[in-house]
Design goal:
Blueprint lengths: L6 E2 L2 E2 H12 L3 H14 L4 H13 L3 H15 L9 H13 L3 H14 L4 H14 L2 H15 L2 H16 L18 H10 L3 E5 L2 E5 L12 H17 L3 H9 L9 H14 L3 H14 L4 H11 L4 H8 L18 H21 L7 H16 L4 H15 L5 H9 L4 H17 L4 H19 L7 H7 L12 H13 L4 H19 L17 H17 L3 H16 L4 H13 L3 H10 L6 H5 L4 H5 L4 H31 L3 H15 L2 H18 L5 H4 L2 H12 L11 H6 L4 H9 L42 H16 L1 H15 L11 H19 L3 H21 L1
Antiparallel strand pairs: 1-2, 3-4
Helix pairs in contact: 1-2, 2-3, 3-4, 3-5, 5-6, 5-7, 6-7, 7-8, 7-32, 8-9, 9-10, 9-33, 11-12, 12-13, 13-14, 14-15, 15-18, 17-18, 18-19, 19-20, 19-21, 20-22, 21-22, 23-25, 24-25, 25-26, 26-27, 27-28, 28-29, 32-33, 32-34, 34-39, 36-40, 36-42, 38-39, 40-41
């Protein structure tokens, strides 16, 4: 090939180096000048054309770049050996990829490989194209050809990894393979059988190549770290096939020595033994893990599950959402006899007591939580003692109550207690707290934890707060800063003048006490970095939560004002507390001050992947607002990040292949797939198109802006009678949206796909646990302000309906314009108009849209026509 002799497309490297230097330094005009000179000397060089296309694309001229790239592609197909090399093809691939025409780059590589099937460099480039397209079957086929050509085992593992990706993506096997002794016709089982079999035949023409996936591939010339990744892939495949015995045999043999971290190896052995049903051996393995890592809470849960022969924890691992893990540990009522259950519980208790004895001077939480978990399991068995559960929680409070995670740790254990026992536990905790002596920082943490556990135990925040007054009595109520006087004045006036029941006064007093506690403890944080979390910063968040709950109860808007003042004060002290900003954002949104809320969102400085998890705080509100410019910027930044990430993910995936890190290959693909099916991402794509239509429309009346969908439905409805004359949309926008057909296809597909939800719902305020729910918009329900478990399936069903409905809008607009244009051309020939087809499709879409709105089409048209007549009558009277 040309590149072997220092040429690219027949051009010496010294002549193209200035072009690349200019591109790298972003001197695109200078690069274009050089490449124009180069083209004059080499007018038939596809490499020169590819360079020009690259420069034009970087200059922001995609149409010209695409035309030049096509010329380069045509020259490549002339089949001249000097004109076809990997450097030319890779340059064209960069251009086509950036222009969203990766299929053309793949076609170029396929053509080159068909002409030069023995060139490993070109085949590697083709494999890269298939990686970028996530075409796992073709990846497998190409990798096998490369293995046959070069005999390098890395290509064999590329094929195995591609097979596993097919299984993970639920793609049917299309490769030309012959599997011996296949026990199942299920295509997914066939995929795993091929990947995991010790030996199988690959049929290619008349040649049969026999090779070993593990015995030969792994035990060869790989670097040590690559061997470990290959072993993990193989174990994973065997586990998916439920061949736990084979996987254990490998771990116990010489290959198991590749896992240098003993705990990781034990974890794999314990999980495989448990899934194989050998709970006794698995419990011994997890006991070893606990001895070496006594703070491994997950390890203890597995240990206890094995003792009680409870496999629910392994079933949950397969179905749990990694972004929204379950709040509580699921477990089954053990099928063991009473004697067996008591015996196993005794073994677990002895293990925990030994762990506590060995870690008496350490801040290790697991052994103390384990004591409460054992009591919880006994309680679920019907043999529990509430006093033992409460005693465990009290002991845990004494040791770890100053930690911010205390309430979260004990939350699931409180669930087994009755209401009376919760009240009793609160009284015990209050007495225990009074006897504790701790340094100021720990005392502050204990106070915060007690307030949180009090809300959890009593459930309803309206319960008596007399016990809280006792806790805060040690802190004097002083106004330490002049700037606090207004806030205290408002709070004290509310305490004095309230006409509500006693609990409102108690809660108001507790708010003042928490605020004072925050101010009193400000000196503890004076030496901290401005961006570091303060001691006691949760106090203001809790104060805000109570004030909002008081507003919900009393409908006294002054409580919201006080909540905003508290948060604004906190941000004046510490400007980087994101939780304060999020609470403020939602409060201002509820108050109707969306521009202010948007400004606070911008101060969060959300970038990169955080957009996917944080954008939900502001996006739903912006979608129904008239702030089109700000909304456009939000959607543009978010979609740009997502599209860039998908391209970068393909690059990282191929890089992982090159470095033989196959676990990362699977991780990158799974993460990309999760983002690509994100409900928020699909909504953003649809809403971005609708926003373009809004911004390109002319003569939109002010009242129509307030309800865009109603306006669309109105204009589309009257269009059927030939009176569409108000909405004029840019044809360029509609053409860019492929006349709405793309989103029409999306609306048909979204119903059969599973959506993912990647939002950080734990960061949301209690009154709006999801973007679809806001308790403040309804009557007081008497619930705790702690968020409830989110019903993902319900959210998914609702969101799918929204996406399907809005995906119809661009196509309906296009069809209405076509129908209106045809109807007003009275002199047009009947056979020159597609009105019947347009009208029938439009009517079909309108019927679907009306169903989403809950109306038959005829009733919807009547309702909107009535609205139109009232609007016209009002205009005439005016």
């Amino acid at each position: 090939m040309a590149t072997k002799f220092g040429f690219a497309g027949g051009i010496p490297e010294r002549k193209v180096r200035p072009i690349w230097d200019a591109i790298d330094s972003r001197q695109f005009k200078n690069a274009l000048k050089h490449v124009t000179t180069l083209l004059a000397k080499h007018p038939s060089s596809p490499y020169a054309y590819a360079l020009k296309a690259l420069v034009l694309e970087r200059m922001g001229k995609p149409d010209e770049a695409f035309t030049v790239a096509l010329d380069a592609k045509d020259l490549l197909y002339l089949n001249e050996p000097l004109l076809m090399d990997d450097l030319t093809l890779s340059t064209l691939q960069i251009v086509f990829q950036r222009l969203d025409h990766l299929d053309l780059a793949t076609a170029c590589y396929e053509h080159a490989c068909s002409k030069y099937p023995g060139n490993l460099e070109l085949m590697t480039g083709l494999f890269n194209c298939y990686v970028r397209e996530y075409s796992f079957v073709k990846q497998q086929q190409t990798a096998i050809k490369m293995y046959k050509l070069a005999g390098e085992e890395r290509f064999l593992l590329w094929a195995v990894c591609s097979i596993q990706l097919q299984f993970l993506e639920d793609i049917l096997l299309e490769a030309c393979v012959d599997v011996k002794d296949c026990p199942s016709p299920d295509p997914r089982s066939m995929l795993l059988l091929i990947a995991a079999s010790q030996q199988f035949d690959l049929v290619s023409g008349s040649t049969i190549i026999r090779y070993h996936v593990i015995k030969y591939t792994i035990c060869t010339c790989f670097k040590f770290s690559k061997l470990t990744a290959a072993l993990m892939i193989y174990i994973s495949i065997l586990e998916r096939q439920a061949k736990f015995g084979d996987a254990l045999e490998i771990l116990s043999g010489k290959l198991g020595s590749l896992l240098m971290i003993e705990v990781d190896k034990l974890w794999m052995q314990g999980r495989l033994l448990a899934r194989a049903g050998d709970y006794t051996a698995a419990a011994d393995i997890f006991h070893k893990i606990l001895e070496s890592c006594p703070d491994d809470w997950k390890g203890f849960l597995h240990y206890l599950g094995c003792l009680l022969e409870d496999d629910s924890i392994w079933c949950d691992e397969a179905v749990n959402d990694p972004v929204h893990p379950p709040k509580f540990v699921n477990c089954k009522v053990s099928h063991l006899t009473e004697e067996q259950f008591d015996s196993q519980i005794s073994i677990a208790s002895a293990c925990v007591q030994k762990l506590q004895a060995d870690t008496v001077n350490n801040l290790i939480r697991c052994p103390y939580l384990a004591t409460i978990e054992i009591e919880r399991r006994k309680h679920l068995r019907g043999k529990g003692n509430d006093d033992n559960v409460m005693d465990g929680i009290v002991q845990y409070f004494c040791r770890f109550g100053h930690l911010g995670c205390f309430t979260f740790d004990v939350e699931m254990f409180v669930e087994v207690l009755t209401a009376d026992k919760r009240t009793e536990l609160l009284e015990i905790l209050m007495k225990t707290y009074d006897t504790l002596s701790a340094p100021p920082t720990k005392a502050l943490g204990l106070s915060i934890s007690f307030f949180k556990i009090k809300q959890l135990l009593l459930g309803d925040i309206s319960a008596s707060c007399a016990s809280v007054e006792t806790i805060f009595s040690r802190f004097e109520l002083i106004a330490c800063l002049v700037g606090l006087s207004l806030c205290f004045h408002i709070l004290n006036v509310n305490v004095m003048n309230t006409t509500s029941s006693k609990y409102v006064s108690d809660l108001e007093v507790s708010c003042v006490q928490m605020f004072e506690m925050y101010c009193t403890n400000l000196p503890l944080s004076k030496n901290l970095d401005p961006q570091e979390g303060m001691h006691g910063e949760e106090l203001l968040s809790m104060t805000c939560n109570i004030l909002v709950q008081l507003f919900w109860r009393t409908k006294n808007f002054g409580y919201l004002v006080e909540a905003i003042m508290v948060l604004e004060f906190g941000l004046a002290i510490r400007r980087y507390v994101s939780q304060y900003k999020i609470l403020l954002l939602h409060l201002y949104t509820y108050c109707g001050a969306l521009p202010v809320a948007h400004e606070w969102y911008k101060t969060l400085d959300v970038k990169n992947i955080l957009m996917e998890s944080i954008l939900h705080h502001i996006l739903p509100q912006m979608l129904v607002s008239p702030l089109w410019t700000e909304l456009n910027n939000l959607l543009k930044d978010y979609l740009k990040f997502m599209d860039d990430h998908f391209r970068e993910s393909a690059d990282l995936t191929f890089l992982a292949y090159r470095h033989r890190n196959y676990l990362k290959v699977i991780e990158f693909v799974e993460f990309k797939d999760r983002l690509q099916h994100s409900g928020q991402y699909i909504v953003a794509r649809v809403e971005s198109s609708i926003l373009q239509l809004k911004q390109s429309a002319d003569n939109i009346e002010e009242e129509e802006v307030t309800s865009f969908e109603t306006g669309i439905f109105y204009h589309l409805s009257i269009n059927l009678s030939g009176r569409f004359n108000q909405f004029i949309f840019s044809q360029d926008v509609l053409q860019g949206l492929k006349c709405g057909t793309h989103f029409l296809e999306l609306s048909m597909e979204v119903g059969s796909k599973s959506l993912t939800f990647n939002e950080d719902l734990l960061s949301r305020p209690w009154w709006t646990p999801t973007s679809e729910k806001n308790y403040l918009l309804g009557p007081f329900e008497g619930i705790s302000y702690y968020p409830k478990e989110i019903l993902t399936k319900d959210r998914e069903t609702s969101l799918k309906r929204v996406i399907e409905k809005k995906s119809l809008i661009p196509r309906m607009i296009y069809l209405s314009i076509q129908s209106a244009s045809a109807s007003i051309k009275e002199h047009a020939e009947l056979n020159g108009s597609a009105t019947p087809d347009v009208t029938s499709e439009l009517k079909l879409l309108l019927e679907r849209y009306a169903q989403f709105l809950g109306f038959p089409l005829s009733e919807a048209i009547e309702a909107v026509m009535g609205f139109s007549n009232e609007e016209r009558s009002g205009a005439e009277l005016a």
